[in-house]
TrEMBL record:
Biased composition (Basic and acidic residues): 7-22
Signal peptide: none
Pfam families assigned to the protein according to its UniProt record, in alphabetical order: LigD_N
Protein's name in the database: DNA ligase D 3'-phosphoesterase domain-containing protein
Annotated coiled-coil segments of the chain: none
Organismal lineage: unclassified sequences, metagenomes, ecological metagenomes
Domain DNA ligase D 3'-phosphoesterase, residue spans: 23-81
Region: Disordered, residue numbers: 1-22
Length: 129
């Protein structure tokens, strides 16, 4: 809490463009500034959806918009496996990630479900023959 409560309380005050249309960025903040290792769970904070043009943003956010540095962890399209109000599962860079909402905490978490790199590599090699 603490740090995230301050962030959450400022979000409704900002007048930021909302993402609409077919290509929208579903946006989350990861306070640890990294993706999780296998079986590790990290806190994530859901922000409002952003316009597609924001996809490469990396820099500093000013006071009133969440203030602080923004480090782009990855940029690119992901393969969505599950998309429900409390669960988003996606494949990115040969790794399977799971975003899930923890109701008692009222927070989102992210975990890397399993390392599937070797499995995918074998499938590709088999299909290439």
């Amino acid at each position: 809490t603490g740090e995230t409560d301050t962030y959450d309380s400022k979000r409704p005050e900002t007048n930021e463009p909302r993402g609409t249309g077919e290509r929208v960025l579903r946006s989350f903040v990861i306070p640890k500034h990294r993706l999780p290792e296998i079986d590790e769970k990290l806190l994530v904070i859901q922000t409002e959806d952003h316009p597609w043009d924001y996809r490469n943003f990396d820099g500093h956010i000013e006071q009133g918009y969440g203030k602080g540095p923004v480090k782009l962890l990855f940029c690119g399209e992901v393969e969505i496996r599950v998309f429900r109000p409390t669960k988003i599962e996606f494949l990115y860079d040969e790794m399977l990630y799971n975003l899930f909402y923890v109701r008692p905490m009222k927070k989102w978490m992210i975990t890397q479900k399993r390392d599937i790199t070797a499995i995918l590599r074998k499938i590709r090699e088999k299909n290439a023959k």
